[in-house]
Amino acid sequence: MPIEIHIKSAQWAKIDLDAIAEAAGQATLGLLGLDSDPVSLAILATDDAEIAKLNAEFRKKPVPTNVLSWPVKDLAASVAGGQPALPQADVFGEIELGDIAISFETCAREADTAGKPMSDHVTHLIVHGVLHLLGYDHIRDPDATLMQAREVEILGRLGIDDPYWDRDGA
After folding, report:
1. 128 is in an annotated binding site
2. Architecture of domain 3-157
3. For binding Zn(2+), which residues are annotated in this chain's numbering (predicted)?
């Protein structure tokens, strides 16, 4: 699975983003029964300042966020909670999913607050971003339920705990 990673913040050298992205991408595509060979995507590994600019430009929210995604094609289901369409290969047999941006500082803060390893949280956010590229979303409740279930299943296959399970019972 070709993943083009653009490192814009030196902080990302603290973790093996290449290995994390590859594992997250392979697991996500594998769960959906997609062959990862012809699938490609790009990841911008950045910081809070740059992701806040992107968030302002594309979502009109001038604040940092953990991950953003830009799918090449809208694969979302028209019915709430419906399964998104599978991506189709182009005339060359390739499937370009789109782009993801991820911020180191926000990821690190969230991982620290949750008391989990940074690598696990980044894996979750890349899975989340790839699912967005594949037409999953969390705006409508039934879609959120489906997307969250997919995330939990993919992360479980990678040996990562359910990020939505509240260990404190709150």
Report:
1. yes
2. 3-Layer(aba) Sandwich (3.40)
3. 128, 132, 138
